[in-house]
Amino acid sequence: MPSAYLPDRSLILIAGAEAHSFLQGILTTDVDALVPGESRPGALLTPQGKILFDFNLWRDGEGFQLECDAEHRDALIRRLTMYKLRAAVTLAPGGTGVTVIWGDGAKEAEGIIDGAFDKAGILLKRQPGSLAVSDGSQAYDALRIEAGLALSGRDFALQDAFPHDVLLDLDGGLSFRKGCYVGQEVVSRMQHRGTARRRVAQVTGDTDLPPSGTELMAGGKPVGTLGTVVGSRGLAIVRTDRVGAATAANLPILAGETLVTLALPQWSGLTFPIEASEAEQ
């Protein structure tokens, strides 16, 4: 069965009588909506509404497990501790390394269903620790590209992206119905005013794509930047208005010297604005 061991992911164990209300009050994820056996993506935002840390969150008995980038685990624990004050909550580092399993074998495999992949119509389960599998990280990256799911450090820099930019508003990682949380006023204003212009796009080249970090250009204007790349396919955070304007003007979009086509993930229901009144001129 397709699987991959991700040694760069780590866990934080969160428990205590007030763990639920503590997380509900600071994270973008709607903790009330978490069901046992399923994870949801989420973020801890800056007060200005940008992503400070991104993660997956799931219930673990009476507590929770949070999966994040191993490099940022200790910093995230420190930030959560800062918000905890005297709440009855314990925060402890868990293990490092997560195995992901997808395909037909995932139906019978143990693990936590990844809610973001589920939104994209892909069954993927996450299991702490290492199973007897090969590295598989490139296959997992290819699957993320197929799903249109971005990851910090690979597709966007922390403190540089809003939740809308990486589709958290659509993949179950951002709530507009629960009460206040850090950065909530900014992202709610973006939602109600419809001002989100940057989105994750799937990139397909007519040959292999250039390296991550290459700018996408149309008519001499940058429209986005390549993130994860596997062969001729990749992800990019793009300005949808500029892509729409390029499409309306029949301008080619290039990654370096490679001609590319862009698509917004089908499951998102989003389209590029191509009417003259919608697109940036």
Describe the model.
This protein is an alpha+beta fold and 281 residues long. 19% of the residues lie in helices and 35% in strands. The protein has six helices and 13 strands. The chain has helices at 19-24, 73-84, 115-119, 137-147, 184-193, 240-248; strands spanning 3-15, 38-45, 51-60, 63-69, 90-102, 112-114, 124-128, 198-205, 215-218, 221-230, 233-239, 253-255, 258-263. The strands form two sheets. Strands 1-4-3-2-6-7-5 form a seven-stranded mixed barrel. It is globular and about 60 Å long. Mean pLDDT is 94; it is low at 276-281.
Beta-strand fraction estimate: 25-35%
Mean pLDDT over the residues = 94
Strands of the largest sheet, in order across it? 1-4-3-2-6-7-5
Structural class category: alpha+beta
Radius of gyration, in angstroms, nearest whole number:
19 Å
How do the helices and strands follow one another from N- to C-terminus?
EHEEEHEEHEHHEEEEHEE
**Overall geometric form:** globular
Cα distance spanning the termini: 48 Å
Share in helix: 10-25%
Instruction: Count up the helices.
Output: 6
Low-confidence stretches: 276-281
Question: Major β-sheet, in short?
Answer: 7 strands, mixed, barrel
Strand tally, please?
13
Brief summary:
This protein is of the alpha+beta class and about 280 residues long. It is built from six helices and 13 strands. The chain is globular.
